[in-house]
Automatic annotation (TrEMBL):
Domain of life: Bacteria
Sections of the chain in a coiled coil: none
InterPro entries tied to this protein: DMSO/NO3_reduct_chaperone, TorD-like_sf, TorD/DmsD_chaperones
Protein name (record): Molecular chaperone TorD family protein
Residues spanning the signal sequence: none
Any Pfam family matching the protein: Nitrate_red_del
Length: 202
């Protein structure tokens, strides 16, 4: 039997679910999923909640997707020749340019929480995938301790809530690839749920 750590014991089941969803969305936007990933996504459980319906849509989109096709779609959407269809960085969405004040503000917050950029990563830290994974880590305690709800809300408001919903809305409307449009729909719904929940705790 595996032993539950003290950090794990501090996390309520609904918060563990939130962390998992943040991490999942982050991984979908960090790189194209493998065929093994797609097989798991096809088997996702869903319910009648907005997030559950979005997960069902993603599962359905995965039915006809292949890792090879999604690798090409990821390249077209986020990398391209010079730039992709989307520029998934907070600074760009908020100012129209990369490496602007939103990135500097994020780096200051990362330093405060002891969050370091992974070795070998060249992209600015305000990439949407990195921000999703930072929220995952704050909720789950991966950065040393579980962030309080106030700390989670502050991070979300300062670095995610002001632009991620717009990014996911744009991605959900793409006709480049149905799977990534479904990822966008899931992100848009989840960001709205998180924003509403945080607003209720103020």
């Amino acid at each position: 039997m595996s032993q539950v750590t003290s950090v794990q014991a501090e996390i309520a089941s609904e918060d563990a679910d939130r962390a998992i969803l943040y991490g999942f969305i982050g991984r979908m936007l960090q790189a194209a999923p493998s065929n093994e990933d797609l097989q798991a996504i096809r088997g996702l459980q869903s319910d009648d909640t907005p997030v559950g319906q979005a997960l069902a849509g993603l599962s359905a989109a995965a039915e006809s997707a292949t890792a090879e096709n999604l690798s090409r779609a990821y390249e077209d959407l986020f990398i391209g020749l010079g730039r992709g269809e989307f520029v998934p960085y907070g600074s760009y969405y908020l100012t129209g340019f990369l490496h602007e004040k939103p990135l500097a503000d994020l780096r200051a917050t990362m330093s405060r929480y002891g969050i370091e950029r992974s070795e070998g990563v060249s992209e600015p830290e305000d990439h949407i995938a990195a921000l999703m994974q930072m929220m995952e880590g704050l909720i789950s305690g991966d950065f040393g301790q579980v962030a309080t709800l106030d700390e989670q809300r502050q991070f979300f408001v300062e670095h995610i809530g002001s632009w991620a919903g717009h990014f996911f809305k744009d991605l959900s409307a793409t006709d480049t690839d149905a799977f990534y449009a479904a990822v966008g729909a899931l992100g848009r719904v989840f960001m709205a749920v998180e924003a509403d929940a945080f607003a209720m705790t103020e």
